[in-house]
Design brief:
This protein is α/β, with parallel strands linked by helices. 35% of the residues lie in helices and 22% in strands. It has a 5-stranded parallel beta sheet, with helices on both faces.
Length: 150
């Protein structure tokens, strides 16, 4: 089970048993709602949806999420990769970056973020579930190396 304090990952157990408090950062409202519905369908608690990078800090503070999905190409002149720096104040979190496509440099920038994984649009619920599992595993390895691989 995922245990957290102020959003910091302390321990991660069996992914199948996890219900993660999640924030969705997506500038397109219809896509944001579709992602939120998929997450709920997977059993996660969507505690907030931000449509711009400026909305994210208040949601992070209010909800202490255990997972964040981030659109790589936000329409408010922010890119999702840069927004990941806002997450440092919340501790090490699993992050699923979502995009329609990236070049190799962007891919490397995304994968350099602790606890992150990349999911390409369009995607299925199963692909989202696998991306979440990969992000949780990366967070375990990147943020709690003493736990090691499960």
């Amino acid at each position: 089970m995922l245990e957290s304090g102020a959003g910091t990952v302390f321990g991660l157990g069996d992914y199948a048993l996890m219900t993660l408090k999640t924030i969705v950062l997506e500038d397109e409202p219809l896509i944001a709602e579709a992602i939120a519905q998929m997450l709920r369908g997977l059993g996660h608690q969507v505690c907030g949806v931000a449509h711009s990078a400026g909305e994210l800090p208040a949601l992070l503070s209010a909800h202490k999420p255990e997972l964040v999905t981030i659109d790589v190409n936000l329409g408010d002149r922010h890119d999702g990769i840069g927004v990941a720096t806002l997450l440092e104040s919340a501790g090490c979190l699993p992050i699923v970056f979502i995009t329609g496509g990236v070049d190799e440099e962007e891919r490397q920038d995304i994968l350099a973020v602790e606890g992150s994984t990349l999911l390409l649009k369009p995607f299925t619920v199963d692909q989202l579930a696998m991306a979440i599992q990969a992000a949780v595993q990366r967070a375990r390895e990147d943020c709690s190396p003493e736990l090691g691989p499960s």
